Amino acid sequence: MKLVKTRQELAEIVTQWQREGETIGLVPTMGSLHEGHLTLVRALDGKATRRIVTIFVNPIQFNNPDDFRLYPRGLEADEALLAQTGLVDILYAPDETQIYPPGFSTRVIVSGLDQMLCGGDRPGHFDGVATIVTKLFMQTRATIAAFGEKDYQQLSIIRRMVTDLDLPITILPVPTVREADHLALSSRNRRLTATQRTQAAQLPLALMACLAALKAGNPIPASLDTCTRALEEAGFRVHYLELRSEKNLAPVEKAEPGARLFVAASLGDVRLIDNMPLS
C-alpha cells in the first residue's frame, strides 16, 4: 500500500492504471477507521482490480467549528490498519490545499434531499458532502465507490447526484456494521465517555422496539412518541425520529416494507445517527 498526499502523484498512478486496463474501487472516509470502514474495503472484492481509500476531514461539511476541531484523527494508526488488510493499493490523504486550493468557490447542491432529516439542523452539511465526494470521484477516477447504509441520507444524496450529473461511477451500498450490543460503528463513538457508551446502546434497542411496535400494527405517531420518550429517558437529546421511504426519503403514511426508521440523537456534544429498515 502506498501513501499518497498530492493529487499530482495520485493522477500519475491512476493514469498508469487506466492504461493497463485496471478498474478502481473507492472508499471515501474521514479517517479514525474501524471495522465498518474495512467492511467497505472488503465489499469491493471482485468489483475492482485496484482499491483506493481516502482520508480527508472535510471542513465544509461541518456547520459546528467545535465538531470539526474535535473530530478524531490519527493517520498513522489508520495507515497501519489498512496496510494489515493487504487489500488497499493507495491511501490518499491530501491536505486542504489539494482539495480546496485558493479561490475555490464551487458547491455541489442536491436540492430537496439535503433539507430533511440531518439537513434540518446541519445547514450546508450535505452541500459539503456532495462537493467533496464529487472532488474525490474526479481525482481518483474510480469506477465504483462503496458507502455504508449507516448514513442512509448521505447514500441517497450521492446516488441522486451520480444519476443527475451522469457521473461514470457505480455506487455500492453496504449494510451497517454494528457492535455486539447493536450500536452502529462510528468514529464519533470514540468521543463517548464510558457512561455515555453504556447509554448509547439504548439507541438501537429503542429503534428495534419501535419497529416491532410498527410491525404489530401500532399507529406510527404513537410508536414514534414512545420511542422518543425512551431515548429521552436514556439521556438522549433527540433531534429527529422519523419513518420515511427508502426510495426517496419522503414521509410515509403506512408502516410497510420499503420504509425505514431514521434517528439523530445526542449524548452531551456527541451526535449519533442510525437507521433501520422496516422489513
From TrEMBL:
Q: Where in the cell is it found?
A: Cytoplasm
What keyword terms does UniProt attach to this protein? ATP-binding, Cytoplasm, Ligase, Nucleotide-binding, Pantothenate biosynthesis
Would I find Glycoprotein among this entry's keywords?
Answer: no
Does the keyword field hold Transmembrane helix?
no
Which residues participate in ATP binding? Answer: 30-37, 148-151, 177, 185-188
Domain of life per record: Bacteria
> Per the UniProt record, which residue ranges are transmembrane?
none
What residues bind (R)-pantoate, as annotated?
Answer: 61, 154
Matching entries from Pfam families are given as: Pantoate_ligase (PF02569)
Question: Which residues act catalytically here?
Answer: 37 (proton donor)
Give, as one word, the top-level EC class.
ligase
Q: Which reaction does it catalyse?
A: (R)-pantoate + beta-alanine + ATP = (R)-pantothenate + AMP + diphosphate + H(+)
Q: Which GO MF terms does the UniProt record name?
A: ligase activity
EC annotation from Swiss-Prot or TrEMBL: 6.3.2.1
Which residues participate in beta-alanine binding? 61
**NCBIfam families attached here?**
panC
Q: How does it assemble?
A: Homodimer.
HAMAP family linked to this entry? PanC
**What other facts are recorded?**
The reaction proceeds by a bi uni uni bi ping pong mechanism.
The family line of this record is: Belongs to the pantothenate synthetase family.
This chain's function reads: Catalyzes the condensation of pantoate with beta-alanine in an ATP-dependent reaction via a pantoyl-adenylate intermediate.
From the Swiss-Prot or TrEMBL record, give the protein name.
Pantothenate synthetase
The UniProt gene name for this protein comes to: panC
